[in-house]
Amino acid sequence: MGPSRVDFDDIYLATEPYVRSVGQVRVGASGIGWKAAEGETDALEGINIPGLSLPAGMLALQRDDIRRLQWQRVARGYGLRVFMKNGTMHKLDGFSAEDQDTMRDAVKRLLHGLSLETRDISTKGWNWGKPEFQGTSLTFRVENRPMFDLPMAFVSNTNLANKNEVSVEFQPPRGRSLKRKSAVDELVEVRFYVPGTTSVKKGGSDDGKESDAEEEVSAASVFHETIKDRADLGQVTGDSIVQFPEILCLTPRGRYNIDMFATFLRLRGKTYDYKIPYQHVQRLFLVSKPDELHMMFIVGLNPPIRQGQTRYPYLVMQFVRDEEQAVDLKFDVDEASRQFETRLRAHYDEPVYRIVATVFKGVTDKRLIEGGAFRGYHGSQGIKASLKASEGTLYPLDKGFLFAPKPTLYIPHSEIASIVFSRVEASSSNKMRTFDLKFNMHGPQDYQFVSINREEHASLENYMTEHGIKMLSELNESTAVSYAGLDMDSDEEGGRGGAGAITKGAAAMGIDDEDSEEDEDFVAESESDVAEEYDENYIHCIAILNRHDNPIYLRNFDEQQEDVKYHYLAHTSCDIIEERLAQSKSNELFLGLLQTVGEMVVHGYVTNTGHKIILVSSVSAESAAIRNTRVKEICQSIHAAYVALVCNPFYENNQDEKLELDLAIEKLQ
I need a labelling partner for 558 at 20 to 30 A (CA). Which of 3, 204, 402, 624 fits? Predict the structure, then answer.
């Protein structure tokens, strides 16, 4: 007769991923127990495992509650899988190969009615097999042997990527204090290719009776619906607290139905469904758009939701300001819903944006940040600006700056080292109507907002003074002076100190006053905003490629670089153009900025016949909107010149005709 209990040391509790808590496993007549070793209970904080008592760090599994036991090979040697009658499964890893016989003997002697099964894992490395659903897990089998398991409880979203492809996305690790010393990477998505069709029964006939008729549907759609059912991602059974139908979302774009439950919300669209726990909501914003006709409600998420490789850390919803609706909330859905009775009312009859913002504030218990006391030149809460190539609105709030709608960005005042006003002096000459703001951050990444209306300068300066934000001018930040600032009349600016600032900057560059005066006289000859459009240092290269990406023309204006460099830039830009065309449904020929390489920017243009025009130019201080307009006009002119050349009945596609295109482009200058 053997001992009444058997102990195994240095065993990991692996029920939850990323948990590295070591302890002792004990098998006795009452069941199986695990107890964390001394100092290992900290790794268990923030997680919820059925049967685990904290802070003692003990897991007790009663014999009568165990359905079966399974032994298999795992990453940490060998593991024991304990399947409970209530559907849950516990994992204990770190056994050695010699422990298998000891465990089998202990189960046979002490846990009457149970036996230790051995599970052989497929190690062929094949990526095709058969998926099977067992309880709350998906098992992928290769030649009838399991290869891996996917717990449905960790699935956050699934969608049909295309006709035969199903993507499955996973939730991030649970708990904020988990020890992840060696867990650098984590699995976030798996894609299954499911070919063929299958037969399913129709839902019913017109007279309400069940029909035995079958219809052919794709196997991928059936697989997709099965995952949604097992992971509880589809239509939720039971009632929600409140539902908001057909809400317009700017990010991610589309119309979504929002169902609010006791602990999470469901975002349901035509293609994507999201289950977002309230604990993932970090910030709430409610601001007015500059048109004063729409409101934006912004929800900050951490971790963000995903669509393929795209992450969305913010939900941006848009509402019509004057649209009102009557909404009733149900607090008797379950016990957990009753906690909101003290935060929310049972009935609302007011604008929709206000109802949605109030409900989100109540269920998430987060502060709602609304537009502050700042008012722009025209009385709006925000000012129009551009971040890189994206136009949006910059909102100066009480404790930070918010840029929306895309890309949504929140910059707290505490993270700002200083703010630089660029091209402010140049804008007072009435030639440049906009200026830029550069945010110097305490961290490694800075932000620059461009194309801000000159009229907003005074209100922004007052706002930053009131909030104690350090302000710099472009001349104070660097000794280099802006060429655009050299065209100001010294007589007009002398009283305001403008000429003094320019003279000081020019002196730092080794330029005397006479040189400055000559520059002023020269600039005064032209009133055009496109004075530098064809400057020799502005455009580096123009390339034209056919629909097969073969170069048919390349003109290098840069004497310091060889043609091979621009051949390389042109071909790498072709891949970016193909991605843009695949994602865009617009008929716009000008694709805008493709990439930035050092001090050069690359813009793209595609003709109706698939020819590509690549223009490489220098990085300049002008705004993105003005630069795109200028480059677009140049590309259109090149396109017209090329069309005129190839439509010539005497045109022959040979090397000599390259000179004709050179002459045509030179005429544009």
Answer: 624
> How do beta strands 347-351 and 324-328 pair?
antiparallel
* Range from 161-175, 371-385, 405-419, 573-587 carrying the lowest mean pLDDT: 161-175
Q: pLDDT, tens digit, for every residue of 315-339?
A: 999 999 999 999 998 887 666 677 7
DSSP annotation of 171: P
- Of 601, 557, 551, give the one whose Cα is nearest residue 574: 551
Secondary structure (H, E, C), 423-471: CHHHHCCCCCCEEEEEEEECCCCCEEEEEEEHHHHHHHHHHHHHCCCCE
Characterise 170 by phi-psi region: left (phi > 0), alpha (psi -120 to 50), beta (else).
beta
Closest CA to 296 of 323, 265, 266, 320: 320
Distance (Å, rounded) from C-alpha 360 to C-alpha 368? 9
Report yes or no: 385 and 393 within 8 Å, Cβ to Cβ: yes
Distance CA 669, CA 667 (A): 5
Locate tokens 């309230």: which residue? 278
Closest CA to 62 of 83, 33, 31: 31
595 Cα distance to chain centroid = 19
Measured CA to CA in angstroms, residue 307 lies from 202, 251, 500 at distances of 31, 11, 54
Q: Which residues contact 512 (CB under 8 A, 6 or more apart)?
A: 506
In angstroms, the CA 233 to CA 225 distance is: 9
Q: Rounded to whole angstroms, how far apart are CA atoms 261 and 331?
A: 10
- Nearest Cα residue to 151 out of 14, 316, 286: 14
> Is-contact 381 371, C-beta < 8 A?
yes
Question: What is the pTM for the complete model shown?
Answer: 0.57
For CA atoms 225, 226, 227, 233, the dihedral sign is positive
641 vs 664: CA distance, rounded Å:
6
Long-range contacts of 199-202 (CB under 8 A, 24+ apart): none
- Please report which residue ranges of 312-382 form alpha helices under DSSP H: 352-364
